[in-house]
Amino acid sequence: MKILLKNGQVLDEQTGKLIKKDILIVGEMIAKIAAEIEDEEAEVIDVDGKFVSAGFIDMHVHLREPGFEKKETIETGTYAAARGGFTTVACMPNTRPPIDSVEIVQDILAKAEEAGYARVLPIGAITIRQLGQELTDMEALKAAGVIAVSDDGVGVQSSKVMKEAMRKAHSLGLPVVAHCEDDTLAKGGCVHDGEFAKRYGLQGIPSEAESIHVARDILLAEDIGVHYHVCHISAEQSVRLVREAKARGQKVTAEVTPHHLLLCDEDIPEPDAMYKMNPPLRSKKDRAALIQGLKDGTIDIIATDHAPHMVSEKAQGMELAPFGVVGLETAFPLLYTHLVLTGELTLAELVEKMTRKPAELFGLPYGVLAEGKSADITVIDLEEERPVDPNTFKSKGRNTPFSGWQCKGWPVLTIYRGNITWDQADIVVTFEE
Description:
This is Dihydroorotase. The chain is α/β, with parallel strands linked by helices and about 425 residues long. It contains 14 helices and 19 strands.
């Protein structure tokens, strides 16, 4: 099968400017990129000056399957990913049962392959049943296909267990992806311990609940040499700690979410569970530190922490509703509109944080628009403007704080391994085996 994308605009690596290119896809690979390509055997798609990027990579999503299929499935989650321009997603292990066995890993990979919308990279649990006590068989999990280990959803409370996990993971070449949260400080809280919490009499979660674990883990990882990655970083102190570790040459990396880049606790209009996520939206000062950290390279990548819940769950209110917001379908337009078009980031910087950089951090052969690479491609209309509408989401989740936000830069065509997985124009292409 051949697909020829005509008249696209791609980023020039030297100048960061958009230049016209055609792209020929043969089978699962990019065969040629040139100013002008003709191929009578190819299906021609005129993308009419739209921006063509490598497919986005999200290293932190919750696909909920197994165990929480009412919230999301591998099929619905990866379809949402395709709609958002993502061709690769890494799924977190806090399912039921957790991703702590070879059988669960194999089942996830089989279902992702069957769905065919996006590549799914399982992240295995650090501890059995994510109870923070006994390490999983990381060697078997790696052989089955996990690309990192994490107990995301809960912080590993025992320093001894975390140090043992780091030693084992390092011996296997697996990154440790850490949800950083000290339960003695965070338990029972539902929002950041700031002005909003005080105004409404809500129990807060202080920034130190995150940064204390970041500091502990950096110290534990220093001598071991493991690749230590901080999930959904949210606090100024955490950014400072990561920056200092990088300055010492330590292999410490971090991710930040669109919601932490664009919102702070002062933006929450009322006790509305659509604004409840973990870590919580923090102060204006924290948000500014996150943007600066992303710009100067302290924070390496952007990840959505896509966390779908049922409408009935979020309707329980700020104190009782589960933590989490969805993000796969809105990440690029939100960040393009509210960071790139406002001058905080360049288009090249945003794309790098969502493609090449996550691939580099985790040793993945994706994230690059180049000849001989996998045909994982996203076409984006940088001029199309419309509001975020949860009713149109392909995810089962509708839980977003961004409903109604006007955005430009919507993905209109997603190609994964040479197959069209999302087409806003409803072009139908049969999947090839």
